[in-house]
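Contributing new records

If you add data, match the layout below exactly. Sequence lines come first and carry their own label; structure lines follow with theirs. Keep one chain per record. Anything else will be rejected by the validation script.
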Amino acid sequence: MKKSASINFRAAAGRPRHAKTRTHRLPICAETGLVRYRDRHQARDGVKVLATAGTRASTFACHACSGFHTDVSEATQPAPSGPVAAPVDYFQTSMPSRRRRYFLIDLENPTRGAKATSDEVAKLWRLLKEQAPGIAPEDHVVVGTSRAVAGRYRPVVSGENVKWVVGANAKDGADRALLAAIDVHSVGRRYDELVIFSGDNAFTPLAVSAKRLGLRVHVITAEHPSGRSMLSSALSDAADIHTVIRLRGKSQRRQAVSAARAMSATWRLENHTLAA
């Protein structure tokens, strides 16, 4: 395996072609196999170099090497998302007086480790934008996933005020990328409310810091198919308000519960027969 790679930063610096070439030899991360940049600024220069060749890329933090990598965006066709529903009346009438919000969306948490399809994520995104709690043009949205998941969900979660951050393909990779992307002091000066779409305990220190700076903290979670809570107790204590998004109607939930009970009863019957 290669241990280093040469990168020419002349294009990133905007230097003329006759200028002296700025070539750096950068190490390779042992876990990801990608070039390791010392900080996000150097990684962004790497993105600019790729852009000169017509390649789109983004940066993400790596917990393994404590550096940053570039992630090449794959050309994918947007998944069909169906008709977009109109925002509910309450959301429209509250626009003039509503709080300015900063959203952090850990997309792997409500999708239970990226088990949802692109259509399901598109539906979740529409609910979040239009109803729970609604996203206005003056809001800012940061969406985080691991590299492996970003290519699947990025086409259906987009917008002018939406920014994606990509984490390593490792445990808590999306959490780390989101937490590295936010400057809570800057957010405290420009926004009124921090919205965290995740129930992970990793966001508890951020929620506590945001409240100390005067921000209202709103935590959103998606309902788990089993009905159990997906919100950590510590993050629940730090939140001012908690919203649960239910993707299934009551009749669908009743059908799911009935099916689970029937399966459990069948298993008990079969188990009793075998024991007899």
